Amino acid sequence: MLRFVDKPRGTVLHSSIDPNVIFWYNSLTLTCNTSANPPPYLYLFYHNEKIVHTTTSRSYNVLYIGPSGSGTYKCTPVSKLGSGQSAYLNLTVKGMK
After folding, report:
1. What DSSP state is assigned to residue 22?
2. Could you point out which of 30, 34, 56, 97 has its C-alpha 20 to 30 Å from the C-alpha of 45?
3. CA–CA–CA angle 21, 48, 86 (5° rounding)
4. Could you tell me whether strands 59-62 and 50-55 are parallel, antiparallel, or unpaired per DSSP bridges?
5. Residue 41 burial (C-beta neighbours within 10 Å; 0-12, 13-18, 19+)
6. 5-57 confidence digits (pLDDT tens)
7. Does residue 2 surpass a pLDDT of 60?
8. Counting beta carbons within 10 angstroms of the beta carbon of residue 21, is it exposed (0 to 12), middle (13 to 18) or buried (19 or more)?
9. Nearest-5° angle of CA 88, CA 41, CA 30?
10. DSSP assignments along 48-80, one per residue
11. pLDDT band at 92, cuts 50/70/90?
C-alpha cells in the first residue's frame, strides 16, 4: 500500500473572536489548522514577524490584549518533512469598550 506524505499545507489561522472587533483587555485564542502526513509536531506563532509562541498544540491563547496587539499574526506548522505553508490573520484592537 502506498502512503501519501506531504509537508503541512492548506494552513488556516482562526481567531476565537472577530478579528475586526477586538477591544483592549479582550482575550482570544488563535487556532492553526493544517493538513499533513505525518502531522505537525510543532506550531510557531508570530506577531508582526516576531515569534511570540511555540507549542506542540495548535492553539495560542492571547490574554488581555492591549493596543500593541494589533497587527499581523502568522502560524507556521512544522512536521518531520519540514516547515509547511504559513497562514496569516490581521487583528485590529479598537481600544476600550
Report:
1. B
2. 97
3. 90
4. unpaired
5. exposed
6. 889 999 999 999 998 889 999 999 999 999 999 999 999 999 999 999 999 99
7. no
8. exposed
9. 35
10. TTEEEEEESSSEEEE-S--GGG-EEEEEEEEET
11. very high
Q: Match 509547511 to its residue by C-alpha cell.
A: 84
DSSP SS3 for 11? strand
∠ at Cα 62 (56, 68), nearest 5°? 130
Answering whether pTM is above 0.85, one says yes
**Are the beta carbons of 44 and 59 closer than 8 angstroms?**
no
C-alpha cell at 34: 493544517
Longest alpha-carbon distance in the chain: 58
